[in-house]
Amino acid sequence: MLFGRARFSSPVIRPLRADKAQDCAGLHGSSFAHAWSAEEMAALIASPSTLAAAALDPATGRLRGFVLARVAADEAEILTIAVDPNLRGKGVGGALLAENLRQAARAGARSMFLEVDKENASALALYRRLGFVKVSERTGYYRRDFEQPAVAIVMRKALP
Length: 160
What we know:
seven-stranded mixed β-sheet, 4 helices, alpha+beta
């Protein structure tokens, strides 16, 4: 530690493997009101149409975050992205998205889509920084416990 604060080292971005499905489910549960199970994660990771990346701690190999996207024809869609709540705002999500965009372009996608909660200002800022633009809204898209369903902003980014 330096002056009472732990140093943060950038994550190592690697392909996400099914052996991390349980860890993915845990991170997803800390990020979303309705989490996906380890079985759902494993099935998505194993699917040939899924692009998956993991952000790993360089010293321990611990999962810091992950992203899952699906490619169909010349379009890709981010299915989910989750980052350890204690590590948000440290570039983990940006590193994951940058890798996922490269994966999608290599797979032949010409554009990437995603949905994001209209109230998630930090995610919206990240997506805009990476070149995503709003194309529409979906009312009642996200379910929330004991609250009104949330509006999703649909965003798109052209890929090279």
